[in-house]
C-alpha cells in the first residue's frame, strides 16, 4: 500500500489507516476474536497505521490493539493515541458507559490538558497497549480547552518529540477552525480532521487545509463517510450524518452523487475514500473497522480506480465545491484514483 510522509517528520503512513474506536465496543459489543481478526485482516491488506485513544471503550481499544500489534515487528507499523481524557476511578458507576461504548463504567473520563496530565496519559496508554512507544500523539477534542491545550499540553508533546520519544504531534477534532489555529500557532505537525473534508462537506477548504498548506504541515482525514451516509453505494433514509439521522436533503444529495459515481463506473464509498487523498496536505484516510469483512471491503474500495472525469462532472452539477484539488496535485500511484 502506498505511503505518504507526515511533512517535516520521518513518520510514514499508509494511505489507509485502521481506526480502532469500534473495537472498543462503540455502540455495540465486538468480541475479542472479531477485533483480532479485523486487525489481522488490516495487516494482511497492507495497512500499517493504527489509531486509538483512552476514550475508546475506556481503554478497551488500546488493550485490544496492543494485544495484536505486540506480535508484529515494531518498526513496521505506526501507532497513534491521544491525550486530554485521563481515565480515573468512577465513584458512581451505573453499570455501562454513558458515552456510546458498551463497556462497564468502573472508570470515567477526566479532562486534563496539563503537562502532568499529558505525561500520565501517555504512560498509562503504554501500559494498556504493552507497546514501547507511540509514534504520534494527538490532543483529543480540546474544543473547550484551547488555552491549556495550546499553552501546556502542546509544549509538553513538543518536548517529547524533540527528545525523540514521539515521532509527531498534533490534535484531533470534529471542527476545522481550531485545528487551523493549532497548525498556525503551535508546534503541531499534523491534525486529525473528522468529517470536514468529505464529498458532503468541504468546509476545511476555508481554514485547516490552507493553514496546513501555508505552514507546511499535514492532515489525516477521518470521518470521510460522515457517520455512515457515504458508506453504502445507495444511501437511504435513516442513515446517519455526523452522528445524527441524516436530513432528507442530505440523503438526496448523497444519492445524486452516487448516481454520478455509477455513471462513471465507480461507487459512492470508493469516491468518498479517494476524495480527501487528492489534497496535497492529506497524508492518510483512517476508517473505523470492526470486522475482517469490513477491512477487506474498505481495502478493496481504496485500491479501486476512481476516474478523474468523475470529479469534473460533480463540479459541473454543483455537487462538489469549486477549488477542490485535481488529480495532478497528487504524486505517485494515488494520482490516478484521486479527485
Please describe the topology of this protein.
Elements lengths: L2 E3 L6 E3 L1 E4 L12 H13 L4 E3 L8 H10 L8 E6 L1 E5 L17 E5 L3 H15 L6 E5 L5 H17 L5 E6 L3 H9 L4 E5 L13 H8 L2 E5 L17 E2 L2 E2 L2 H16 L4 H7 L7 E7 L3 H12 L4 H9 L23
Parallel strand pairs: 3-4, 3-14, 4-5, 5-8, 8-9, 9-10, 10-11, 11-14
Antiparallel strand pairs: 1-2, 6-7, 12-13
Helix pairs in contact: 1-2, 1-9, 3-4, 5-6
Largest beta-sheet characterization: 8 strands, parallel, barrel
pLDDT averaged over residues: 95
Shape: globular
- Uncertain runs with pLDDT below 50, 5 residues or more? 328-339
Distance between the termini: 19 Å
Beta-strand proportion:
15-25%
The name of the CATH superfamily reads: NADP-dependent oxidoreductase domain
Order of the strands making up the biggest sheet:
3-4-5-8-9-10-11-14
Total beta-strand segments: 14
Give helix and strand order, one letter per element, not per position.
EEEHEHEEEHEHEHEHEEEHHEHH
- By secondary-structure content and strand pairing, the structural class works out as alpha/beta
CATH topology value: TIM Barrel
Describe the fold and architecture.
The protein is of the alpha/beta class and 339 residues long. The protein has helices at 32-44, 60-69, 115-129, 146-162, 177-185, 208-215, 248-263, 268-274, 292-303, 308-316, and strands at 3-5, 12-14, 16-19, 49-51, 78-83, 85-89, 107-111, 136-140, 168-173, 190-194, 218-222, 240-241, 244-245, 282-288. The protein is built from ten helices and 14 strands. The relative contact order is 0.13. Strand 12 (240-241) and strand 13 (244-245) form a beta hairpin. 34% of the residues lie in helices and 18% in strands. The chain has one domain: Alpha-Beta Barrel (TIM Barrel), CATH 3.20.20. Helix 1 (32-44) crosses helix 2 (60-69) and helix 1 runs parallel beside helix 9 (292-303). The radius of gyration is 19 Å and the shape is globular. The strands form four sheets. Strands 3-4-5-8-9-10-11-14 form an eight-stranded parallel barrel, surrounded by five helices.
Amino acid at each position: 500500500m502506498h505511503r505518504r510522509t507526515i511533512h517535516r517528520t520521518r513518520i510514514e503512513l499508509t494511505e489507509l489507516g485502521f481506526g480502532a474506536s469500534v473495537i472498543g465496543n462503540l455502540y455495540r459489543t465486538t468480541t475479542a476474536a472479531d477485533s483480532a481478526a479485523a486487525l489481522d485482516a488490516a495487516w494482511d491488506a497492507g495497512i500499517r497505521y493504527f489509531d486509538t485513544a483512552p476514550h475508546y471503550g475506556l481503554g478497551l481499544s488500546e488493550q485490544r490493539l496492543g494485544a495484536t500489534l505486540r506480535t508484529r515487528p515494531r518498526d513496521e507499523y505506526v501507532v497513534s493515541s491521544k491525550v486530554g481524557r485521563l481515565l480515573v476511578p468512577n465513584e458512581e458507576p451505573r453499570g455501562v458507559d454513558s458515552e456510546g461504548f458498551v463497556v462497564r463504567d468502573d472508570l470515567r473520563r477526566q479532562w486534563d490538558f496539563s503537562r502532568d496530565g499529558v505525561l500520565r496519559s501517555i504512560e498509562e496508554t503504554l501500559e494498556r497497549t504493552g507497546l514501547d512507544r507511540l509514534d504520534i500523539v494527538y490532543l483529543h477534542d480540546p474544543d473547550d480547552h484551547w488555552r491549556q491545550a495550546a499553552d501546556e499540553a502542546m509544549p509538553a508533546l513538543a518536548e517529547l518529540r524533540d527528545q525523540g520519544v514521539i515521532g509527531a504531534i498534533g490534535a484531533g477534532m470534529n471542527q476545522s477552525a481550531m485545528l487551523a489555529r493549532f497548525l498556525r500557532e503551535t508546534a503541531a505537525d499534523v491534525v486529525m480532521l473528522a468529517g470536514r473534508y468529505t464529498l458532503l462537506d468541504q468546509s476545511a477548504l476555508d481554514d485547516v487545509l490552507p493553514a496546513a498548506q501555508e505552514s507546511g504541515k499535514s492532515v489525516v482525514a477521518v470521518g470521510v463517510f460522515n457517520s455512515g451516509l457515504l458508506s453504502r453505494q445507495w444511501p437511504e433514509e435513516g442513515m446517519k450524518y455526523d452522528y445524527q439521522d441524516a436530513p432528507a436533503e442530505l440523503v438526496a444529495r448523497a444519492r445524486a452523487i452516487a448516481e454520478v459515481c455509477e455513471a462513471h463506473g465507480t461507487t459512492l464509498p470508493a469516491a468518498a475514500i479517494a476524495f480527501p487523498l487528492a489534497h496535497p496536505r492529506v497524508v492518510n484516510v483512517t476508517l473505523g473497522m470492526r470486522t475482517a469483512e469490513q477491512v477487506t471491503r474498505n481495502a478493496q474500495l481504496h485500491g479501486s480506480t476512481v476516474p478523474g472525469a468523475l470529479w469534473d462532472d460533480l463540479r459541473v452539477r454543483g455537487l462538489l465545491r469549486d477549488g477542490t484539488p485535481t488529480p495532478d496535485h497528487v504524486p505517485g500511484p494515488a494520482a490516478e484514483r484521486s479527485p
